[in-house]
Write a structure and sequence with these properties.
The chain is α/β, with parallel strands linked by helices. Strands 4-3-2-8-9-10 form a six-stranded parallel beta sheet, with helices on both faces. A three-stranded antiparallel beta sheet has the order 6-5-7. Strands 1-11 form a two-stranded antiparallel ribbon. The protein has nine helices and eleven strands. The longest helix is centred in the N-terminal third of the chain and has 17 residues. The chain starts with a strand and ends with a strand. Bound molecules: nicotinamide-adenine-dinucleotide.
Length: 257
């Protein structure tokens, strides 16, 4: 059994807190075996830079390549299971009267872990939509063509995700902004804090005088601004946080795991 130390004062920052906003990034799914964009890609895809594949220009240039990269990632996601970090967030949702889970992830693992209301800023890799009409297509077309065509208009289908340079879904973004500006604690988990506009959310919360907690084993541009920077993997820190909030007697000391 190893002790996990919680930064002093972090649990007390939740005293009398009703409104918690959480922002997650690729790091929370790393322990489920889904690589972050900043980790080297493996196998076939190691020579590609994800930031060059996840763009509308890349899809225009080589739709087959981009479709196949997403098919590979979809396969990874379909074999993955939520980890202790996702599960702890699903449990935390039940403890706060106002809880917002904002994610930049496209893997759907929060929902799989039981989180009921998830604001997906970057879409979901498990869905497809028409590249011309922006309409989500429910039934996957039964065809050999890659990428498949929209059954309505014949244009190419694409993953229902937000690519670099594209706008975010308006409603999810507005709800995320609202949550950040009204929360009392803002928890940033597993995100590099580099990709806008999500990277601005903790600063919105800061202006509204929320306490900022970051969980990330590596420092990010947010780290020096955060009230608490907890440099642990999400799958370690979040269950420890949940346990400490459930049991106030452990709240000031180290926890066992
Ligand atoms: P990122 O890849 O830029 O950064 C990931 C961050 O997670 C890093 O700061 C890293 O230090 C941290 N991290 C790594 N392991 C961790 C762990 N075990 N616990 C906590 N933190 C850990 O990811 P990003 O900031 O989310 O943004 C990049 C974009 O990549 C997003 O737009 C997102 O849509 C996309 N993306 C999503 C997935 C996914 O859905 N799982 C995977 C890869 C990329």
């Amino acid at each position: 059994m190893s002790a996990i130390s919680i930064p002093p004062g972090l649990i007390q920052a939740f005293d009398h807190v009703d409104r918690l906003a959480v922002l997650t990034g690729a790091g929370i799914s790393a322990e489920s075996g889904i690589p972050t964009f900043r980790e080297a890609q493996t196998g076939l895809w190691s020579r590609y830079n994800p930031e060059d594949l996840a763009t509308p220009q890349a899809f225009q240039r080589d739709p087959r390549l981009v479709w196949e990269w997403y098919a590979w990632r979809r396969e990874l996601v379909s074999r993955a299971a939520p980890n202790a970090g996702h599960l702890a967030l699903a449990a935390l949702e039940l403890r706060f009267p106002e809880f917002s889970l904002i994610t930049q992830n496209v893997d759907g693992l929060h929902q799989q872990a039981g989180s009921r209301r998830v604001l997906e800023l970057h879409g979901n890799i498990r869905r497809i939509r028409c590249s011309a009409e922006n309409i989500t297509v429910e039934a996957w077309p039964d065809t050999q063509e890659i990428p498949p065509r929209c059954p309505q208009c014949g244009e190419r289908l694409r993953p229902d995700v937000v690519w670099f340079g594209e706008s975010l879904p308006r409603q999810a973004l507005e709800s995320a902004w609202q949550a950040a500006s009204s929360c009392q604690v803002f928890l940033s988990v597993g995100t590099s804090s580099l990709v806008e506009p999500a990277a601005s959310l903790p600063y919105i919360a800061m202006r509204a005088e929320a306490k900022i907690i970051e969980i990330n084993p590596q420092p990010t541009p947010l780290t020096p601004q955060a009230d608490f920077a907890w440099q642990q993997p999400a799958g370690v820190a979040l269950p420890a946080l949940l346990a400490a909030l459930q049991n106030p007697f452990t709240s000031t000391g180290a926890l066992s795991a």
